Amino acid sequence: MNHYDIIIIGGGITGTAIAHECSKYQLTAALLERGTDIGIGATKGNGGVVHPGYDPTPGSLKAKINVRGANLYPRLAKDLNFGIINPGIFVIGFTDVDEAVLKHKLEFGIKNGVKDLAIINAEQMHNREPHLATEAKHALYAPTATVVDPFEVAIAFAENAKANGVEILTSQLVSAIEKRADGSFLIVTPDQQFSCSYIVNAAGNHADVVARLAGISEYQMKPRHGDLLVLDKDMANKPQTVMFPCPGPDTKGIACIPTVHGNTIVGSTATMMDDKEAVNNYAPGIQVLIDGVHKILPELDAGKIIRTFAGLRPVVLDNNNDFFIAESQTVKGFIHAAGIQSPGVASAPAIAEQVRDLLDNAGLEMKPKPDYNPCRDKKTVFADLSIDEQDALIHQNPAYGRIVCRCETVTEGEIIAAIHGVIPAHTLDAVKRRTRAGMGRCQSGFCQYKVIAILSRELGLPVSDICLEDMGSQLLCGTVKGGVK
């Protein structure tokens, strides 16, 4: 049983950002994720907006961390080679009452240090978004706002952390935590035991459950469920700007979000749930999304919806809607990174810095690693290459000449690379998230069986053992007409 300086529990964008930050220092660290892949909880059920920081109450932990995190993204995207776009945000007002709220948000943003915020009029909005509802009167415009793919960011953090010495371990559900007499922790999972000096709890909606394993009852969590829609890339009148309505007290409202991959996302609803696994979609929620986006973009064609999905945002109850990032008051060396709801994506890099400082204050020596490599190699995306580049790649490796997913032009070569990557993809959804095979218009109707066959061949497993996501989600239970070819 190896001893680590730090063990991070939870492999979402928060946990992987912390792992990435820890990899910069001369210490030993491991990340334990209960799922078969990183980023499959709250991280993947997310619209990907990097909110610039006009929303949090000045002086709150969110306000401080949100702005710092958002400002770190452009450099991180360059170093770690993940996609980022800069569409800006409109927060749209339809009434004089809304205008007062927008001015309030403008004041918040200025106090929080957000740059270039402005209130703009209807003409200025329609010059940028000509299909915006004619009833829209004014907007808070945040031109610095960016959008990322949250899973792509998480995998970039995890791969760079692993390349710099952090162990990334999946399928490790923590079932017990013991604080030993020497001050260290014993962590138990179904098939392993781990020893460490410090624990960072970044377990998302299950952070309170993990804390209780260590005898800590300092907060209670409840998930906020949100339905989301994905629209086809070829939809007419695609928005160029992230657009929100004037916000309510608990949610930013139904937004229309251009993505780094060319789709448009509409999301999300906000319903408090007791079930920490309730990621089903609900018909009333889908209708709320359609009605809500039509208030902003009346001409948006709901017939272009190709996918619905849902996410659960982790909320710490009775905490002023703020993050909970602190060392435990009762168990020394146990660091909470809990309640990371919106703007969690924007805040993740700064949360990692905050946790680093908490570890330093708790007694862990944070000596910079002289050979730390901040960069991650750019992955090959066949569809983004020129014809000459594609031709050269196919001559080098013929697997790149075999198109598996026609909708997204994903090749067998890309799928093989994902299966054997730094953080390997061993399930259908893991391949999909890394390569986009199955994310197009047909939603894997034509390529699913091909990806299953490639996984089976590359992993040396029968096709009946290939899972959609977690164990028990096998896709096939027998052969049809002689089996998969």
Structure in words:
The protein is of the alpha+beta class and 485 residues long. The chain has 12 helices and 22 strands. Strands 1, 2, 9, 10, 11, 12, 19 and 20 form an 8-stranded mixed beta sheet that branches. Strands 13, 15, 16, 17 and 18 form a 5-stranded antiparallel beta sheet that branches. A 4-stranded mixed beta sheet has the order 6-7-5-14. Helix 1 runs parallel beside helix 5 (150-163), helix 1 (13-22) packs across helix 8 (344-361) and helix 10 packs across helix 12 (448-459).
Low-confidence stretches: none
Taking all Cα atoms into account, the compactness measure Rg is 23 Å
Mean pLDDT: 95
Structural class: alpha+beta
Oligomeric state of this protein:
single chain
Q: How much helix is in the residues?
A: 25-40%
Largest sheet entry: 8 strands, mixed
Outline: globular
Strand content: 15-25%
How far apart, in Å, are the first and last alpha carbons? 43 Å
How many E-type strands?
22
Number of continuous helical runs: 12
Helix/strand layout:
Elements (H helix, E strand, L loop, with lengths): L2 E7 L3 H10 L6 E4 L16 E2 L10 H20 L3 E2 L3 E5 L2 H17 L5 E4 H7 L9 E5 L3 E3 L1 H14 L3 E3 L6 E4 L5 E4 L4 E9 L5 H7 L7 E11 L10 E4 L9 E4 L5 E4 L3 E2 L10 H14 L8 E12 L7 E4 L6 E5 L5 H18 L25 H10 L6 E3 L4 E2 H8 L8 H8 L12 H12 L26
Parallel strand pairs: 1-2, 1-12, 2-9, 5-14, 12-20
Antiparallel strand pairs: 3-8, 4-8, 5-7, 6-7, 10-11, 11-12, 13-16, 13-17, 13-18, 15-16, 19-20, 21-22
Helix pairs in contact: 1-5, 1-8, 2-8, 10-11, 10-12
